[in-house]
Amino acid sequence: MSSQPEHPTLLIPGPIEFDDAVLQSMSHYSESHVGPGFVSTFGDTLAMLRKLFQTTDPASQPFVLSGSGTLGWDLVAANLIEQGESVLVLTTGYFGDSFADCFKVYGADVTQLKAPVGSRPQLPEIEKALKEKKYKAITVTHVDTSTGVLSEIEQLSALVQKVSPETLLIVDGVCSVAGENIEFDNWKIDGVVSASQKAIGVPAGLSISMFSGRAMKVLEERKTPVAAYFASMNNWRPIMKNYEAKKPSYFATPSPQLIHALETSLKQILAAPVSERFAKHAEVSDRIKKAVADLGLKQVASKPEDQAHTMTAIYLPESVKATDILPALAKKNVVFAGGIHKEIAPKYIRFGHMGVSVLDPKRGDVDRAIKALQDGLAECGYQKA
Ligand SMILES: Cc1ncc(COP(=O)(O)O)c(C=O)c1O
């Protein structure tokens, strides 16, 4: 039984429901951020992140910074790209557009390959784009949280290796890390940026990322200084290295309580092979998607191979408005999110299924949500044709 006060089940695509032990570890007594206890916790946490990202290359560099997922975009744009350098942004929804905006702020020359809503740019068009122009980096949103579209990182990496091996492969894993398989070394990824509040299962407030040795070399070989201060990897990299070596170090104050929560969550995540965690997310996702299809509803991500396992974006029947179904669900103590993709926003809702809601069947979160959706739609007058 959870020790949390009764509350509506939060099944939006982040923040997710949190495990009791993770929340309790945030009520840790105050300690110095440069004291041996906390330095050891931070060091262990960084070492565990290597396992979550499936990297054993000592040149890979984890960063855990106070901030949200968006800070990961700034890290990439401010540190790995210089003014006027070209970036190819694969866009499968709202978050690809925002990543592109972030690059523009730092003066990058941005090309976006946009897929029609509900699909993703296809490999032949990506190959054509990579052959037409030299790109310093290509970015992909692993799961775009606005559409529930999953991108295929392994195949994309093979293509980049074949056509433009010097281009850095950067993955926005905010809605995928710890819910979808990511093999950092095997897939030759140069950067994954993520955040605490989704499948990693920790309250919002941490930007969590991993960069390759090659990305670090790009940073070292910059011709111009990094035009950021808090987001400068040059400021943080030595601190992360020191923490991992269990040496006290300071650039800006970290949040000890959030780091404790991350340590607890990573210990839980790594208590079993990560492949089991990903398989469970896929199994529960399949069950949800079948329930959605049984209701006669379509998903925004149209093809099964393009559908994320951490969330489902569901088109509403024409007769039902998001402003009717979301309150109906809330009355049943289930919180889903509305649409945010500007082309289709009022027409769909989003169901996040990550972390404890997926992994702990005793909670009954997913079954309760499916039942609430069925009953809520019926109350809104919907009947399957
Ligand atoms: C795929 C993706 N990228 C980036 C972000 C931005 O993260 P944050 O809201 O934590 O800044 C989000 C947020 O939901 C996201 O889903």
Automatic annotation (TrEMBL):
<dbReference type="GO" id="GO:0005777">
    <property type="term" value="C:peroxisome"/>
</dbReference>
<keyword id="KW-0032">Aminotransferase</keyword>
<comment type="similarity">
    <text>Belongs to the class-V pyridoxal-phosphate-dependent aminotransferase family.</text>
</comment>
<keyword id="KW-0663">Pyridoxal phosphate</keyword>
<dbReference type="InterPro" id="IPR000192">
    <property type="entry name" value="Aminotrans_V_dom"/>
</dbReference>
<dbReference type="Pfam" id="PF00266">
    <property type="entry name" value="Aminotran_5"/>
</dbReference>
<dbReference type="InterPro" id="IPR015421">
    <property type="entry name" value="PyrdxlP-dep_Trfase_major"/>
</dbReference>
<dbReference type="GO" id="GO:0008453">
    <property type="term" value="F:alanine-glyoxylate transaminase activity"/>
</dbReference>
<feature type="modified residue" description="N6-(pyridoxal phosphate)lysine">
    <location>
        <position position="198"/>
    </location>
</feature>
<feature type="domain" description="Aminotransferase class V">
    <location>
        <begin position="50"/>
        <end position="341"/>
    </location>
</feature>
<dbReference type="GO" id="GO:0019265">
    <property type="term" value="P:glycine biosynthetic process, by transamination of glyoxylate"/>
</dbReference>
<dbReference type="GO" id="GO:0004760">
    <property type="term" value="F:L-serine-pyruvate transaminase activity"/>
</dbReference>
<dbReference type="InterPro" id="IPR015422">
    <property type="entry name" value="PyrdxlP-dep_Trfase_small"/>
</dbReference>
<dbReference type="InterPro" id="IPR024169">
    <property type="entry name" value="SP_NH2Trfase/AEP_transaminase"/>
</dbReference>
<keyword id="KW-0808">Transferase</keyword>
<protein>
    <recommendedName>
        <fullName>alanine--glyoxylate transaminase</fullName>
        <ecNumber>2.6.1.44</ecNumber>
    </recommendedName>
</protein>
<dbReference type="InterPro" id="IPR015424">
    <property type="entry name" value="PyrdxlP-dep_Trfase"/>
</dbReference>
<feature type="binding site">
    <location>
        <position position="350"/>
    </location>
    <ligand>
        <name>substrate</name>
    </ligand>
</feature>
